[in-house]
Amino acid sequence: MVTCEAFDRNVEVNGQTVVTIVEKAMGRFSEAYRERALAALAEEGITDPDPDEWYPQQAWLNAFETIADELQPHVLDRLGEQLPDVADWPNDFESVPDGLRSIDEAYRRNHRGGEIGHYRFERTDDRAGELTCHTPYPCPFDRGLIRGVAERYAPMDAFVFIEETGSTCRRTGDDTCVYTVYW
């Protein structure tokens, strides 16, 4: 797995996000997964995460890497997929394009302190669009996040499909991945 590096060492992640992912998302898998996530955070100096605190994004990213290495990368995909259901998420809309645009808003609510990156959505067809992910988060996490958001707002008859279509990828050391989303 490519090492995830924060764009700026001053960036912090909201403690509520840390607690939500560990307690609600990892806890959905199993108590053992939840405990491993807490141990990975403790290895980075984050013990007993507090929802009212802010933590270094790099420590959070290092914990992601540990989780992926020890529990398999697909866990990050599943974590991303659950995020819109377990996190405080902007919900004042009902369409896939608006849902995919909300990823950036949610990201900005939960990161501060420097160059955090961004998520940018552009509609390309009636039921398709491109999402550019310029963040330090692992590709499997973002794919799951995109799928989770798209499925949440897609019509009942829709089949959500995500394809990596950009010429750059974080797996190969770049800072950006581009996904085409169909629904």
Poorly predicted regions are none
Tally of contiguous helical segments: 6
Which class best fits the helix and strand makeup?
alpha+beta
Mean of the pLDDT scores? 92
Largest sheet: 4 strands, antiparallel
**Superfamily (CATH H level) name of the largest domain:** H-NOX domain
Task: Tell me which CATH architecture of the largest domain applies here.
Answer: Alpha-Beta Complex
Protein name: 4-vinyl reductase 4VR domain-containing protein
Organism: Halopenitus persicus
If you had to describe this structure to a student in words, what would you say it looks like?
The protein has about 180 residues and is of the alpha+beta class. The protein folds into two domains: about 10-80, no CATH class; about 95-180, H-NOX domain (Alpha-Beta Complex). Helices cover about 45% and strands about 20% of the residues. The chain has six helices and seven strands. It has helices spanning about 15-30, 30-45, 55-70, 75-85, 95-110, 140-155; strands at about 10-15, 55, 110, 120-125, 130-135, 160-165, 175-180. The strands form two sheets. Strands 4-5-7-6 form a four-stranded antiparallel beta sheet, covered by helices on one side. Helix 2 (about 30-45) packs across helix 3, helix 4 (about 75-85) packs parallel to helix 6 and helix 5 crosses helix 6. The chain is globular and about 45 Å long.
